[in-house]
Amino acid sequence: MPQAPLIAGIELGGTKCIAILARGPDEIVARIRVPTTRPEETLPALEAVIDGWQGFAALGIASFGPISINRHSADYGSITVTTKPHWSHTDIAKRLRARYNVPVGFHTDVIGAALAEARWGAGQGLADLAYVTVGTGIGVGLIARGSAVDGLTHGELGHVRPARMTGDDWRGACPFHGACIEGLASGPAIAARTGIAGQAVPHDHPEWRSVAHTLAQLLHVLVMTGVPRRIVMGGGVITGNPFLFPLIRAELYRSLNGYIALPEIAEVDTFVVPAALGDDAGPLGAILLGEQALGRG
Question: What's the pTM?
Answer without folding.
Answer: 0.92
